[in-house]
Write a structure and sequence with these properties.
Rossmann fold; methyltransferase; 15% strand; alpha/beta; 8-stranded mixed β-sheet; 8 strands; single chain; methyltransferase activity
Length: 264
Amino acid sequence: MNEGFDTGVAHPARRYNYWLGGKDNFAADRESGDLLAKSYPAARIAARANRAFLRRAVRHVAAEAGVRQFLDIGTGLPTADNTHQVAQRVAPESRIVYVDNDPMVMAHARALLTSTPEGETTYLEEDLRNPERILESAGILDFTKPIGLILVAVLHFLPDQKQSQEIVRTLVGALPAGSHLVLSLATTDLLTPELKAAWDESLRTGRSDVHPRTREEFASFLDGLELVSPGIAPVGDWRPDPDATEHPTPVEASIFGAVARKPS
């Protein structure tokens, strides 16, 4: 077993799987998820809303922007409508590189995230904090052609805003013009004062590892990029699907989302 695989320590990907109703999680992940849900009761709704945002955003980048290759960092455990499934429904020849730092995620990804015959998927066990290594190892991607960079619900696990900005700058800087960034992360800007106070307390006491960002901090990740309409929005409000069965409010899905294009 990989020495980094510790079922006694909660991992964000497995906790997210628990919130989405999956079975690929352990007691530590469920305990962590339940503790966070006490501070943020809509955590499960937010997880589903964030997943739906990923689906809509990837579909836009593939169908409307014509991007045929994706770098998805912070993949999470496979559920319905993973990045490659959404992109390859639009264009079967799409290529996807998945990146995560949990060996369990990689084991499941290699087994379950199979590509269309025309396309290709590959998987890197690497940490977001090592963007240069990620870029060096993304061998199936052609960095002369547009790439969809997926940073969905991952940056908020980094407490330091400056470090986060440098990582995004490094990743986006390596992408050619016409590439797109799909970004989402937690915020307390949209919460009631009572919920915000509960979130702040859970972070202060170590019950939470999710470090929310303000709208201004979120916008700083998009410097130099062209926002796609409707710009920065709560994930439930970013091009919502009118046929969806769930329409979360900004308080329930307190996550900012955006898609932005790298100009020429």
